[in-house]
Specification:
Distance between the termini: 34 Å
Number of helices: 2
Helix content: 10-25%
Structural class: alpha+beta
Strand order of the largest sheet: 3-4-5
Largest sheet: 3 strands, antiparallel
Strand content: 25-35%
Number of strands: 5
Low-confidence stretches: none
Radius of gyration: 14 Å
Order of helices and strands: EEHHEEE
Length: 120
Amino acid sequence: MSTTRLLEPTGDYGIDAGDIQQDGTETSTVLWLLRTQRGSCLVYPNAGNRLARITKLDGAATEREAKQAAEEALAPLVAQKRISDLVVEAQVEGSAMVLTVAFTDVASGAQRRVQSRLGG
């Protein structure tokens, strides 16, 4: 099953001839899970992350909490053996949180790295 292609500048789904484009990788799924608040998707209420629980950006404690939330959001992909070798880094930059996720796409064997900036 391929995942839908997200256009990086906007985060919108790629459309071609009226159909959602497929990218054949897990990259879009990882980005979607990092950008979706848990409980906000009616079809998949357990999908997404709990980053909304973070109320203050106060350094190392916040980075640890964000890393755990991202790992929890991506755990189903690891359990389903869709991705492996997951490494999550979180860094507070001013009024924003930057999540960097590196993983191996099991289907293709390719190593992927994505980054998502949350907030300011």
